[in-house]
Design a protein that fits this description.
Two copies of one chain form a homodimer. In chain A, 33% of the residues lie in helices and 25% in strands. Chain A has 327 residues and is of the alpha+beta class. The first copy, chain A, has two domains: 146 residues, PurM-like, N-terminal domain (60s Ribosomal Protein L30, Chain: A, 2-Layer Sandwich), CATH 3.30.1330; 157 residues, PurM-like C-terminal domain (Phosphoribosyl-aminoimidazole Synthetase, Chain A, domain 2, Alpha-Beta Complex).
Chain lengths: 327, 327
């Protein structure tokens, strides 16, 4: 069935029927605005992300449901990085007129499924025809108790540097996809269907263990750079401490230069955070559900800059950092 | 100067420098999320809109600054339609790589200028390369005291039907632009640089004068249809009561069929609302700054449906309603 048969309002009605509600949502999909009741003592967190076909994703690599899931996860990851919990999402969708209703339904299924997994609801959106590629915009609202907000600012010299999960899998999968290959399913999933680390972010915030936090979307060193800039500090990263999956290690054995993907590849959606040394045992205890938490370095005074060192403490060259959409 | 010279992060830094802050914004542009402090007793309003090049606008018709202004106004209009006041905006921007920095700066100027006019701040966003057209997503957050929320639901038989401003100017300007003409500046401005009726919406909410409200974006009859569906009522619209500008009346004299543009043209961004008859004098008194408030009909029981009548009360045929992106 073509989208023209149900039209814009037909599609909205289908999504509206399936969207869940929650206690704080006074008014969801179907009016000029959604209306929700803020919780007393909690800050409102908001972040917006774009996913553009052939820039952020290719339709050939991902079924629509998985694309819907990823659209939610990358956005929710920003709330996790502040120590917050997602509450509601708003979806802007620009789609070519010829798209099948089945594909759109599957996309919406993925969005709603991921929302439910994160305990959030889809509360509004806008659907339009695109004369070009798929354009997806997702805006998440989350909450965090006022005293628990974690920003990029707050890392202090002496703090330990930690990262969740494994680095580089997503970039390695992307590299194989770009080369026309078919990455191993576990690797592909890390790129096409990442998880936002909401539970870990909340635990760090509730227990007051982190001094600064960011999610790794632009690449480890680029995102660490954001913490260093905001906190006005330097850092030393231990190359051999980077948490790598066995699939990534296998690839690395064959091609050592691939380590750059773990350092600068991006789209890991892991949490990178700093924490005082006396909290190390409490932080390590947060590893759960196969998501390790690994110390990868230490915060230094600003004048030391950003150092990458090998197992013997010798400086290694830094790869080109992260991704800029226009450079 | 080309965007590639300053890059994505250079552009964000330029916007961040110029964005204003406000008391409730704990954290604006520059972290993973914006963080703001909700006001006790107020509901949070949220709406998201897409503006896609060659679907919603053409670059040849509008300078970038005016496009930035319109992107804000159409989104803020949704908050006005709930009786609320806008607080913060989030901008997603997909732009072709070859765009000049001067054009992007002018676009950001327009966004920031319109935000300031509405008493709102730009609090976050995402900027990416688009392989196709300009793709703009705007999400607004606003506030309304809990008892003052105005929805599409609440119109009752016997209520009077009112609309602000003048209808059809925007659609008439668009028609002339599509035909390759140059509409009169006052007419063009109504399409390219519309105003959100925030002050009027707030006044209606504060004084408790409206029972249901919507903004006219899809066309008068289509948006009235949304009120009728949500409120489960019918309505009678008096054709000769529609508020028309002198420019529109001139065009209408030459071509009577143009009246359809006032009934179904869309993008008026006026407020359409219902109000009990005993409030009529108070509503009429809200006309201000050249924005009239005009009674154009009355709410009927649902079984009467939607009637358009002439000066003698005779039914007139209804034009095709509104715009569907896919039908």
């Amino acid at each position: 069935m073509k989208l023209a048969e149900i039209g814009e309002f037909g599609f909205i009605a289908r999504v509206r029927q399936r969207a869940e509600s929650c206690a704080d949502l006074v008014l969801g999909i179907g009016d000029d605005c959604a209306a929700s009741r803020p919780a007393p003592g909690e800050l409102l967190l908001t972040s917006t992300d774009l996913l553009i076909e052939d820039v952020h994703f290719r339709r050939a690599w991902s079924d629509p449901r998985t694309l819907g899931r990823k659209s939610v996860s990358v956005n929710v990851s920003d709330v996790a990085a502040m120590g917050g919990k997602p509450a509601s999402l708003y979806l802007g969708l620009g789609i070519p007129g010829g798209v099948a209703v089945e594909d759109l339904d599957a996309f919406a299924d993925g969005v709603l499924e991921a929302c439910a997994e994160y305990g959030a609801v889809l509360a509004g959106g806008d659907t339009c025809r695109s004369p070009g590629p798929w354009f997806i915009s997702v805006t998440v609202q989350g909450r965090v108790p006022e005293g628990e907000l974690l920003t990029r600012q707050g890392a202090r010299p002496g703090d330990l540097l930690w990262v969740s999960g494994r680095l580089g899998d997503s970039a390695l999968a992307l590299r194989e996809l770009l080369a026309g290959g078919r990455p191993a399913p576990a690797l592909a999933a890390r790129h096409l269907d990442p998880s936002a680390r909401v539970a870990l972010g909340r635990a760090l915030a509730v227990q007051g263990l982190a001094t600064a936090m960011i999610d790794v979307s632009d690449g480890l060193l680029a995102d660490l750079g954001h913490i260093l800039d905001s906190s006005v500090v330097g850092a030393r990263v231990e190359r051999d401490a980077l948490p790598l999956s066995s699939l990534f290690r296998d690839a690395l054995t064959a091609e050592p230069a691939l380590l750059d993907l773990a350092l600068a590849g991006g789209e890991d959606y892991e949490l990178l955070f700093t924490s005082p040394p006396q909290c190390a045992a409490a932080v390590a205890a947060l590893a759960a559900d196969g998501v390790p938490v690994t110390q990868i370095g230490r915060i230094l005074p600003q004048e030391d800059g950003l150092l990458l060192v090998d197992a013997l403490g010798r400086p290694c060259p830094l790869p080109r950092r992260g991704f800029d959409h226009f450079s």
